[in-house]
Fold these 2 entries.
Entry 1:
Amino acid sequence: MAVRRFSHFINGADAPPAGGRYLASEDPATGQPWAEIAQGDAADAGAAIQSAHAAFAERGWGALPGAERAAMLTTLADLLEARWEELVEAEIRDNGKRIVEVRAQFSGLHSWFRPFAKAAATLEDQTMSPTLPGVTCTSRKVPFGVVVAITPWNSPLMIAAWKLAPALAAGNTVVVKPSELASASTILFARIAAEVLPPGVLNVVTGFGHEVGEALVRHPLARKVSFTGSEIGGSKVAGAAASGPLPVTLELGGKSPQVVFADADLTATLNGIAAGIFASNGQSCVAGSRLIVQRAVHEEVVSALVATANCLQPGDPMDPATQIAPLANAPHRDKVMGMIETAKAEGATCVAGGTRMLQTERPDACYVAPTIFTGVTPDMTLWQREVFGPVLAVTAFDTEEEAATLANASDYGLAAGVWTNDPAKGQRMADRIEAGTVYINHYRSVDPAVPIGGMKKSGYGRELGPDALADYQQTKAIWVGTAPMPNPFPPADRRPT
Ligand code: NAD
């Protein structure tokens, strides 16, 4: 297959990198290059930010009535609903996600835009009630200007949509910096969006985070940063943004617990656990990677999960029958295998997987078997560190108290699952678990109406939900004097100096 070339997308058109450099993007199902993407530098970052700034400040995207932005975003949603299939293959070639999952994500891409378009159409000033006499005051939500949106490789386009929909609806213009490991779908998306949005409203620059990403964050015309990625990347971005200083939203990693009580409906529970750790190969921010099971059902739950793990069929991610796709790239595969070896060395018991798959047929591909470790304790690396792969760490508990303590024994706090037929117990656990999202008898769903984000080292700020628009707005208070302004230096006080 011929290697496809993707340049940046700046000011409504493809833009070759200033330095003329491109990076290879390998298909993780074969290990072979399938595309090359622009390797951006500070000059490209500057061009993209200038383009976004001009669209905001000179060509007036930020000053448009909300209803006009809403109409364009609705048309964009319509286009996405009609044409999402054009984007599917690029995403699969880039990050190896199974076609059934990519199709499910992309057929719903339009739905992230519609509620925010509606919100843009109904933006209104709020009347304040100052205690001072002789004034009235309104509070107006205004955009920041140029937003830098930095995205990871696991679900690049869906995560970009979570940022773009509220940011554009609020009146900002955006420069997206997708992961250097999966940029193509975002470029293709930008080309579709350019059929509706004015030039410069949405720009995409690609390349390494420390090169072009940091140059975007440090650019003097950048006004707000929204970052999704690893804890390490997030810390660096927050550090660079602090020199602005720029406000930052950080959506970071997780080590999310799933707590199973003996009274749970085990069929539904097993589905939820498998969805939590084996769907997307565990390359999901909310992957339920720590399984905390009440001792009475520990054996039953583990043996059912082992049976499932051992039956899942690896194959080409483009084939709808495939159940195990490759991990997203070779360095990540090697990192996951390294963490499996560490777990073995630290004394956890590997009861399923623990190996690469399809090594004979596809020696350069990135398949790793669904893996389960039992006897994992909080002092082990596998308990503490995010694998971002299909590796489940299991431990047993006896009491509710112990379950809550184990669930919270992590630096992360992104999501958690609780499985019980006792609603009061479910709510008690939801109260006690430190996580931005707690699912009870359910797992891994996201919805435009529901906020998502982390506690502790999983980040701060929230995407989606009722406050997402406000995350991309700043507040301007407008005072109007309704009585003459009093003289601060009444004549009686005046003396020659
Ligand atoms: P990463 O931190 O390596 O990279 C994410 C993005 O940041 C990439 O575009 C990268 O180029 C850029 N970047 C890295 N260093 C940078 C710097 N110094 N300045 C500017 N940009 C920089 O993360 P990843 O490996 O691509 O993604 C996996 C991580 O993302 C996992 O930890 C996962 O949990 C997390 N994630 C979180 C969520 C969420 O909603 N909380 C969703 C998806 C993924």
Note: The CA atoms of residues 134 and 485 lie 8 Å apart.
Entry 2:
Amino acid sequence: MPDVDGYIFDLDGVLVDTAKYHYLAWKEIAKEFGFELTPEHNEQLKGIGREVSLHKILSWAGKSLSEEVFAQTALRKNESYLQKISHIDHKELLPGVLPLLQQLKSKGKKIALGSASRNARLVLERTGILPYFDAIVDGTMVSKAKPDPEVFLKAAEALHLSADRCCVLEDAPAGIQAAKAAGMTAIGVGSPEILKGADKVISSLANG
Ligand code: BG6
Ligand code: MG
């Protein structure tokens, strides 16, 4: 890990293995429109907000919805996602997460969450890692979705750190773009082909 003062973690796909549940929930919704959502499409949904995701799926499917049905559909996706994560616990943490959080804490580093999800706090609570976080910025607190840097700039502000002293850990192209736009070091967690633009890419937090 680069030697900075603050580490800002994305949630889904970096700390917890919940990206697959978002994917499954969106796949069900897309199917209702006769559209088969593939893992390639899903890469473009990672990291971005619920409504922006639904707009993208509708445009791929060539469909449009009234405002009311759009809102109902976004709500149904979330209900399905919540159902899928109703059983989760610490076993859903991705490899290397706990040792890294413990190591950063012991070195006196600041830790924040920078996630688009409105369910972030619930997921941190259920997986038992909430106490490690000095600040949480989630989808209830931002108006502009990644790749806009807002979520990470707010996290740095909450940690009382300047952007250049923060490092973001992200699994989504939109998140890497957001981190770079914020002027932060960006570590991609996943594949280098997908996470272009990151300062460094690691296959998991266990291999940092
Ligand atoms: C991001 C996920 O963390 O949160 C996206 O990568 C998801 O897949 C977004 O759409 C919004 O999450 P939620 O839980 O508020 O619907
Ligand atoms: Mg993510």
Note: Residues 163 and 184 are 5 Å apart (CA to CA).
